[in-house]
Task: structure prediction
Amino acid sequence: MLTMKQPSIDDELLAIADMDVVTAEFAECERLGREVQIARQAYDQLFPYRVPPVAGLDYCGANQPALEMGGDYFDFLSLPSPKLGIAIGDVSGKGIPAAMLMFSGLGKIRRDRRQMRVVD
Result:
C-alpha cells in the first residue's frame, strides 16, 4: 500500500515563499516590458515623419529594427534649395544599448545641424 507523507509547516512555508519569488519576478518582467514599450514609442518618434520638399524628387524612409529598438538611424536635413542632406547612422549591436548610443549621436546631429555647411 502506498502512503503519502503529509507536508510539514516548513514545506508549506517554503512553497509559499517560492510563489512569492515567482510572483515578484513576473511583476518585474511586466514592468520591464512596459518600459521597453514606452522606449520603443519614443524611438519610433525620432524618425522623420515629414520630408523636406525637393523639386523633382519623390523620396521616403523606413526603419525596421531586428529587436524592439536598435542602433539604426536616418534623417533628412533641410538645406538651401535644391539640396537635401541625409544623415545615416548604424551603431553596432542591437537592442536598448545600441539605441542609447544612437540617441546620443542623434542629439549631437540635431544640435549641430544648423551649423553644418553645404559642400558642393
